[in-house]
Design brief:
The chain is built from three helices and eight strands, in the order H-H-E-H-E-E-E-E-E-E-E. It is globular and about 40 Å long. The protein starts with a helix and ends with a strand.
């Protein structure tokens, strides 16, 4: 009987709770909330960053984005990164940058404006990016997790996307 109770607890823990925490409707609403914060937020809150060592942002199937204000994911001198700078909930500028000496940044390459669209298809959330030339790129939202920082009650989200 004790073994059955432990077994049922493990099923609950590993099957039901993760499914609830990654409910597609909830995930989509959280993403909308984060992107909506761009129009009222501080510049550091409306800027999302992905590391781009050896052009990994453009080559890798999985990318992770975090807010510029995130103290957990800080950029080091020499780090290359891609910046999504939101101007409103559905428009952002993508720019390649490199962290320089004393936190200065240097831009490289041309910037491009993108429109972002969230879609719910077959209980999965997709992000479609469309640049001003009409080129599209679609990602499956794999995860949106918050990381608590011990000195703060704030959560700093990390968005994980898979190219499709």
């Amino acid at each position: 009987m004790k073994g059955l109770t432990i077994f049922m607890f493990l099923i609950l823990l590993f099957a039901i709770l993760p499914a609830y925490s990654q409910d597609p409707e909830y995930l989509r609403s959280q993403l909308k909330q984060f992107f909506n914060e761009a129009k009222n937020g501080l510049p550091s809150e409306s800027t999302w960053i992905a590391l781009n060592m050896d052009s990994s942002y453009y080559k890798q199937p999985v990318i992770q984005l975090f807010r510029q204000s995130d103290p957990v994911h800080t950029l080091k001198e020499g780090d290359s990164f891609v910046e999504w700078k939101f101007y409103n909930p559905s428009t952002f500028r993508l720019l390649n940058k490199k962290r320089g000496y004393k936190k200065s940044t240097h831009s490289s390459g041309k910037e491009n404006m993108y429109r972002i669209k969230l879609q719910l298809i077959d209980r999965q959330v997709f992000v479609t990016l469309k640049n001003m030339n009409g080129e599209k790129e679609t990602f499956l939202v794999v995860d949106l997790e918050g990381q608590n920082v011990s000195k703060s009650l704030n959560q700093y989200p990390v968005l994980t996307l898979l190219r499709v």
